Amino acid sequence: MHVLVLGSAAGGGFPQWNCNDETSRRLRAGDPRLSSRTQSSLAVSPDGRRWVLLNASPDLRQQVNERWQLQPGHDAPLRSSPIAAVLLTNADVDHVAGLLTLRESHAFALYAHARVLDVLAENSIFNVLNPGFVARRVLRLDQPTAILDAAGAPLGLQAKAFAVHVKTYIWRDE
After folding, report:
1. Among residues 88, 79, 45, which one has the least CA distance to residue 71?
2. Among residues 151, 156, 123, which one has the least CA distance to residue 137?
3. b/e map of 64-90 (b: 16 or more CB within 10 Å)?
4. In this predicted structure, what is the pLDDT of residue 173?
5. Burial of 108 by CB count in 10 Å (0-12 exposed, 13-18 middle, 19+ buried)?
6. 10 Å Cβ neighbour count for 55?
7. What pLDDT digit, counting tens, does each position of 22-46 carry?
8. Contact 52, 23 (CB under 8 A)
């Protein structure tokens, strides 16, 4: 199994564009002990050739450009990519905005829970993902799903979606 950490920072990356805390100022001043980080995302592959992205961060273009494994090979066709599928864990902007980078009519499979796929379908900006090339597939909760590329070929991976309950904070003026 091959795993690439594409990004490990929270939304906005590090430093965030509007953050002026001490660590952000030190990084911008060139402190060699610090490095910038892109927003959280992973890539996994059973064979090192065909890759599945776990979420598509707004930093996806930079993340692909920084990792040769996700770039077309030197002998690949003019338009190609080793990215065979994208699996979305939710519909947060930090996990779906990078899909817009993948709008160039390249075939890949898009996996997500039905509610996440509904959010994408309801927002016309995601129509740039050509349905003739991008197969949208539902991940059902608590059921293992074989991950296939857009043509239906197995990628040698399975995913099992599960619900995560988050805390809801309610602000009350007293």
Report:
1. 79
2. 151
3. beeeeebeeeeeeeeeebbbbbbbbbe
4. 52
5. buried
6. 25
7. 999 999 999 999 999 989 999 999 9
8. no
**Cβ pair 28, 15 in contact under 8 A:** yes
In the CATH scheme, what is the homologous superfamily, with its name and number, of domain 2-160?
Ribonuclease Z/Hydroxyacylglutathione hydrolase-like (3.60.15.10)
Helix (H, G, I), strand (E, B) or coil at 23: helix
Per-residue pLDDT at 79 exceeds 60: yes
- Taking CA atoms, 95 is separated from 25, 49, 60, 72, 87, in Å, by 27, 23, 10, 23, 10
DSSP state for residue 140 in the 8-state scheme? P
Helix (H) or strand (E) holding 146: strand 144-148
Residue pair 38/13 in contact (Cβ under 8 Å)? The answer is yes
